Amino acid sequence: MQALLTRIGMTRDAVVPLAKARGRERLVSEALRPAAATNLWRKTSADPSFAAHADAALATLSVIEAANPEDEALQSRLALPQAVQDAGKTAALVTADRALGRRVLAALQPLEHRGRGFRRRRARRHAGRIFARLAASAALGGLEP
């Protein structure tokens, strides 16, 4: 973020939040603080409202611990269909590990044939990501037409 702001000639003060962070957004925001600002963790963790946000953020979070990549893929394959069995719920596996994504997709393929509708959606084709990439490209390119 700092590199982008510097490149386009803006300061951090010029960035305004679109909405107040709550729940997982607030927890992730704290976890990803720049190293120079981690001294604020103690102050933030002592704030009762932050504790409530953190509790709410972690209440429905599942963590998978696996002995090896194959077990990780299998556990993900079992967890995803379970998560979407409730009406109106969705589930996603978000990972930068392409090999894990391929293993989970391969494990889900038998469900595809049974009409469960699991599909692969590449993140780079997602509309929000396309917009962000184009906006960053325009900003870094000096906003040339």
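(the above was protein one; protein two follows)
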Amino acid sequence: MSPKKKNNIFCTTKNLCLISLLLFGHKFFAQSNFFNTDDKLEKEFKSIICTLSDSSMGGRYAGSVYEIRAIEFLKNFLNDCKQTYVVKTDTFSYCCRNDSVVTAHNLWFYPRNSTQKKIFLTAHYDHLPPNSQYSKEIWNKDKIHHGADDNASGVAMAVILFKYLNTLPTDFQPVLILFSGHEEGLHGSEYWVQNNSISNDSVVLLVNFDMVGRLSEETNIISIHINDENIYKDTLMKIQSDINPVLTFERLNETDANGFLDVNISSLSVSTGIHADYHRISDTADKINYKGMVKIFNFMTNFLGML
């Protein structure tokens, strides 16, 4: 949708006919008459990922001008949500990168009218700085690490789901939180949890997205990192979908969902897994499986519709 159009449907509930269509359409967003085909949704994903992973974004590394540039793009993309959401930018610092303190920023959208229970949609938007110790490159560490899958894809999924859920009269309100400082130690999510009062009985669930752009066309497997006590395990496995969810009880502590688990927020993290381009300069937008992202989107809307 063009940001110039006044009657943008996202984050509004004025169009009752459209809401009815979205509510009763079998595949929600991707198959509604408004979006016509999955191509429309693919283009939305591609627009976000190509922009965030473009060379002009410099890898979006924490504490850089490129991080601020990414924030401004995301604010503009979600401009219509400002009517119903408070847009906040956290500033936090952590030590150290090359013996220097890094000052970074989280971006989040919280409902102005906060009376309903919440579902948190999260992703980290930062990637690696030049010469990062976490780069897998040998000769090209000083080059831009684009981070298309890691984690422009996760940001795109969280953002589009957030916009979609705001078109529906649900029993919960979506909250969007985009973290920085992830690549060097989950600093953004840790800061957010420590500096925001959360009542765990007011949050239905947190869903984190980290690298969801490389769905295998052969297996259609997504890994869902989840703790054994999570009450939604059975629901996830009951969904009729093209996706094959694999629940894993390992490495959840390495995701941005971990800090929320520490305050007893039911949380899970979704990923299509590590690949040969992970933390390399070759993690570019042309390698993203956009059709696969549509499948994951449909899986998640079906899941969230069952809560």
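Reviewer note on protein two: The CA atoms of residues 162 and 210 lie 16 Å apart.
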